[in-house]
Design goal:
It is a single chain. By secondary structure, the chain is of the alpha+beta class. It is built from 20 helices and 16 strands.
C-alpha cells in the first residue's frame, strides 16, 4: 500500500513537472518603480545606498507576474547593508494582506556596486523562500467543466442542482507545484540581476529540500492596468520607512545661529517695550509675539493682526530671558510647518521666516533720530506694510506651488510615463530650465530660459527630490513676489503662464505643449528661439544676449603670443594694478565697515532686495 502511494506521488510529480520559473515576468511599471526607488534612496542619502522592497502580485491573479513593489517598512540602510526589523516584516505582511496582494519574492539595491548575491543576501533569500512557500506552492488555474441539464461535472466531481441562471460560471482550482521565490538586485546604474529558488518535497524523508539556484530570463511585460508612479509619493514613503545610517537626509535650508538669533530677540524686546509704552496701534500683536511660545507661527500673527482698540492691554509679567529664549527658538527653527505632511503641500517656511524676521528687524531699525511719537507711527507703518507683503506672498506661493508640481511632474514623465501615453514633446526642454531653479540659488525663470538659449547643453533624465522641488518653489515664489511689487506687467505674464500650465497639466494634458510653444518657444522645430520676451526679466534680454554672444564668437581677436622674457614684467604690472584698484576702493588709513554684527548679515543678498 505504501509503495502504491509513493508510485502515485511520483507519477503526479512527473505530470506536473513543468518548470514555470524559467522566466521572471515583471510589469514595466513595477520594474521602473524598483529602479526609481533605488536611485531616490541614494540621492537622498548623498551616495550609493542599499534599500529593500517586496515583489508582490494580486491574490486573484492567475499568473506569477510581479505587478508592484512594496517598500519595506522600518528598514535601516547603509552603503553596504540593509536590515528590516521584525516589526517591519510584520507590518509589511499586514500591508500586503490589506491590499489583497501576495508575495512573490524580494528586491534590493546595491547602490553604486555591481549586482550579485552576497553571502548575506543568500541567507536572507533562504529565509524569504521558507516564509512564502505556502503561498507559491499553489497555482490558480481555470478548471475544465461540463454542464448537463442541472448537473455540473468538474474533473472527477459531479455537482447536482445547478439552476439555469448559474450556467455561466468560472471555476478556479488550485494546482500544487514546487514552491519558489524570486529575487531582483538592482543598482544606480540601471543594472539588474535576477535569481529564483525552488524547493522540492522529498517523500522519503517527508521534508522539502532546497534546489539549486537558477538565473531566470527577466521579461518586461506591458499591461493596461500597470502601476502608476508618483515620484513625490515614493520619496515621501522613503522618508517614512527608510532610516539611512551615518548620513542624514540632505537639507540645505538656512539656519540661524544662536548668537545671531539672540541679538535680534534682545533688540526687538527693547523696542517693543517702547512701542507698548506709547500705545502703538498693533499692541495686541506685539504682546502676542512677546508672550507666545516658540511653537507659534508669528508669521500668521503678522498676517492676520488687526489694529488694537483703545482699551488698555496688559502686558503679562514674564522673565526677559524666557522671552528671548522663545524668540530665539522661533528664529532657529528651519520650518514653520514641520508638522504638516510635506508630500501633500509645498512648504513655504523659508519665505515665511524671512517675512517674520524682516518685520522684527525693520521694527527695531525704525528709530532714526525721531521723537517717540514719530517712532511709533513709523513702527505702525512697518507692521501694516508687512501685512500687505504677507498677503502678496500667499498668492505668489499658491501660484508657485501649483506650477512647481506641474512642471516637475511634466519633466519627470521620462521616468513615470514608461508607456509614452502622453507623448509630450518638451520634457527635456522643461527639465533643463527647472534644473537651474532646483539646484542653484538666486535664479529666476527668465535667467534659466536665457541659459537654455545661450548654452546648448543636452539635458539628462533627472529626478527632482523634495528639497530640490522646494528650492524651485521658493525661487518661483520669490520672482513672482518681486515682480508683483515692482513690475506688475511681468507678474501678470508669469502668472498667466504658470496658472494655465498647472491647470492644463491636471485637467487637459493635450494643451500643455501648446502653452509651452505659445509662451516659451518661437521656432517650435528647433526649440531654440523664444518669442515671449516680456516673460523674461528685464535684465535678461534674450535677443540682445544672443547677438552679443554671436558677436563674441565672430569678432574675437586672436591672442598674441607674448615672448617669455615679458611674462615676469606683465605679471608684476598686473599685481601693481590690483593694489592700486584696491587702494582706490578702500583708501589707506580708513577702516572698511565690517558686516559682523549687522542685522542684514542674516539674510542672503536676494532676500534683502526682496524684502528691503
Amino acid at each position: 500500500m505504501d509503495l502504491d502511494l509513493k508510485i502515485l506521488h511520483a507519477l503526479e510529480d512527473k505530470e506536473e513537472r513543468v518548470d514555470e520559473t524559467e522566466t521572471l515576468q515583471i510589469t514595466r511599471g513595477a520594474f521602473t518603480k524598483d529602479h526609481i526607488f533605488a536611485k531616490l534612496v541614494s540621492r537622498i542619502a548623498g551616495g550609493g545606498m542599499e534599500c529593500y522592497a517586496y515583489l508582490i502580485k494580486p491574490n486573484e491573479a492567475m499568473d506569477d507576474i510581479v505587478r508592484d513593489i512594496l517598500i519595506a517598512p522600518d528598514q535601516d540602510t547603509t552603503s553596504s547593508h540593509v536590515w528590516v526589523t521584525p516589526e517591519g516584516v510584520k507590518q509589511a505582511g499586514e500591508n500586503i494582506a490589506a491590499r489583497n496582494y501576495e508575495l512573490l519574492g524580494w528586491t534590493h539595491s546595491h547602490g553604486t556596486m555591481s549586482t550579485f548575491h552576497s553571502s548575506w543576501d543568500i541567507d536572507n533569500f533562504r529565509t524569504i523562500l521558507h516564509e512564502i512557500s505556502p503561498q507559491t506552492m499553489f497555482k490558480k488555474e481555470n478548471a475544465l467543466y461540463r454542464l448537463d441539464e442541472d448537473k455540473l461535472f468538474v474533473d472527477n466531481y459531479r455537482i447536482e442542482g445547478i439552476k439555469p441562471l448559474q450556467r455561466k460560471i468560472d471555476i478556479i482550482k488550485k494546482v500544487e507545484r514546487r514552491p519558489f521565490a524570486y529575487s531582483i538586485v538592482v543598482n544606480d546604474h540601471n543594472e539588474y540581476y535576477a535569481e529564483v529558488w525552488t524547493k522540492t518535497f522529498d517523500h522519503a524523508t517527508g521534508r522539502f529540500k532546497l534546489d539549486n539556484a537558477k538565473n531566470p530570463k527577466l521579461e518586461i511585460v506591458d499591461v493596461d492596468d500597470d502601476v502608476e508612479i508618483d515620484i513625490a509619493e515614493i520619496e515621501d514613503e522613503i522618508y517614512q520607512k527608510v532610516r539611512i545610517n551615518r548620513r542624514d537626509f540632505t537639507n540645505d535650508h538656512r539656519r540661524y545661529e544662536s548668537k545671531q538669533a539672540k541679538a535680534i530677540a534682545n533688540r526687538f524686546i527693547h523696542h517693543a517695550a517702547q512701542y507698548l509704552a506709547k500705545n502703538g496701534e498693533y499692541k495686541k500683536l506685539i504682546v502676542t509675539m512677546l508672550t507666545e511660545d516658540a511653537e507659534a507661527s508669528r508669521y500668521q500673527m503678522i498676517k492676520t493682526a488687526e489694529k488694537s482698540a483703545d482699551e488698555t492691554i496688559e502686558v503679562p509679567e514674564q522673565n526677559k530671558e524666557e522671552i528671548v529664549e522663545n524668540l530665539e527658538g522661533n528664529l532657529e527653527r528651519s520650518e514653520f510647518s514641520r508638522y504638516l505632511d510635506a508630500s501633500k503641500k509645498f512648504r513655504r517656511f523659508e519665505l515665511e521666516n524671512l517675512i517674520y524676521l524682516r518685520t522684527m528687524v525693520d521694527f527695531s531699525n525704525a528709530e532714526k533720530n525721531v521723537a517717540a511719537e514719530e517712532l511709533v507711527a513709523k513702527q505702525d507703518e512697518i507692521i501694516h506694510g508687512y501685512q500687505e507683503k504677507a498677503k502678496m506672498l500667499e498668492e505668489c506661493a499658491d501660484i508657485a506651488a501649483n506650477a512647481t508640481r506641474a512642471l516637475s511632474r511634466y519633466a519627470m514623465e521620462e521616468f513615470t510615463d514608461y508607456n509614452n501615453k502622453k507623448e509630450h514633446k518638451y520634457k527635456r526642454f522643461i527639465s533643463s530650465i527647472i534644473g537651474y531653479l532646483a539646484t542653484e540659488r538666486n535664479y529666476s525663470f527668465g535667467k534659466a530660459l536665457e541659459n537654455k538659449k545661450r548654452f546648448k547643453v543636452k539635458t539628462k533624465k533627472r529626478l527632482y527630490l523634495r528639497e530640490e522641488r522646494i528650492n524651485m518653489f521658493n525661487q518661483l515664489t520669490r520672482d513672482l513676489y518681486y515682480d508683483c511689487m515692482r513690475n506688475p506687467e511681468m507678474y501678470e505674464t508669469q502668472k498667466t503662464f504658470f496658472t494655465a500650465f498647472a491647470n492644463a497639466y491636471l485637467n487637459n494634458t493635450g494643451q500643455v505643449d501648446g502653452l509651452i510653444e505659445q509662451h516659451l518657444l518661437g521656432d517650435v522645430e528647433s526649440g531654440e528661439k523664444y518669442q515671449d520676451v516680456a516673460f523674461v526679466h528685464p535684465t535678461y534680454n534674450l535677443s540682445s544676449a544672443s547677438e552679443l554672444y554671436q558677436q563674441k564668437i565672430v569678432e574675437r581677436p586672436k591672442k598674441e603670443k607674448v615672448p617669455k622674457e615679458m611674462h615676469t614684467e606683465k605679471s608684476t604690472k598686473s599685481t601693481e594694478e590690483k593694489i592700486i584698484k584696491a587702494n582706490e576702493y578702500t583708501p589707506i588709513g580708513k577702516v572698511q565697515p565690517s558686516r559682523r554684527g549687522g542685522i542684514d548679515q542674516f539674510l542672503p543678498a536676494w532676500a534683502r532686495r526682496l524684502l528691503g
